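If you are new to this repository, start here. Below is one unmodified record pulled from the training split, so you can see the exact layout before writing a loader.
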Amino acid sequence: MDEKYYQAMRSRSLSERLVIAARDRIYDDFIRFCRPAPDDAILDVGVSDVVNDAANMLERKYPYPDRLTALGLGRGDQFRAAFPRTAYARIEPNQPFPFADKSFAIATSNAVLEHVGSSADQAFFVAELMRVARKVFVSVPNRHFPVEHHTAIPLLHFWDRSFAAACRWFGKDEWADEKNLILMTKGRLAALAPPRAVIDYTGLRLGPFSSNLMLFIEEARPTEGPPASSGSALEGPE
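And here is the target side for that same chain:
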């Protein structure tokens, strides 16, 4: 899927520049919400073995690459060559991450959750992120951005039937299969997250038509006095 996505986006094209601009803003929100310290261990789940200026946002920008651990589905040969200071591990789809509980300060994933094959698999993916880290930051393409990210089909992706028909028409049938792509909305993210998670727009901000959505989850912090009877609210960025 990564190869098909990046092959469809020509190098130095307007599409690539827009993707880079969106992901730079996603990175800014990652820093703003997660507030990583220099010694925080960070897990990046679903990195790409396609290496270009748009892929692997965190590895391209984060100033402490030796604090990053990347998980990917492939052998990672190109990734390892491009980011030699970042640890890389290969995983199988829909399997537990090979780490103990709370091994990381932060677990993050960009443009991956929409490719996890079903609602149940997506819920398991988010649960695994929460299991291994104290903070979780996930970003996905927003279904309501005017142009669908993977196919460049405008507007017709707002409805399942019209998107499926357009994919058939343009010879992009694989993107209409939910095993490959689940078009994400705020409601879909909310169904996967704890009640007090933060769900917001990110990327190229155009209100409800923004390019991307973000999900931020932070482990409840201990409070002074007797424990509350239920979960505590997450703190947003200052």
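Two things worth knowing about this chain: Residues 32 and 59 are 17 Å apart (CA to CA). Residues 3-9, 224-238 have pLDDT under 50 and may be disordered.
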